[in-house]
Amino acid sequence: MNRLLLLLPLLAFLQCRPEVPEEVPLPTKICVRTQHHTVPIPNAIVYLKYNVDTFPGYHQPPSYYDASFRTGADARGCIAPVPEGRHWLVAFGYDSLYFPHYVYGSLRAEISLHYKPVLDTILYISE
Length: 127
Prior knowledge:
It is built from one helix and eight strands, in the order H-E-E-E-E-E-E-E-E. By secondary structure, the chain is mostly beta strands. A hairpin with a 7-residue loop joins strand 6 (85-94) and strand 7.
């Protein structure tokens, strides 16, 4: 009986513990403002290729990339969470003020939980 009394609080404690999360949320994020010369480029699409050292180029299909997001009407956009590592961002947009109108650009980004979990920058795009 004494053993049962000792075991009951332990069982109650184990039953009342919160469930362990399946994933640990990362506090990482990439935010960009797409810009051509001094003009913000709204509604640009930004593709991400994770953990690559070489530039992926501008002719890859969308399925080649690991993630994507669009900039808003203010030409700003974010994606979170982002895995640690060296990534490439490739952006495509439309600028009605300059010819040719279709503009594109790229940026290499490094994300680290220890020294740079958030990147907030301008992604310059051009003809």
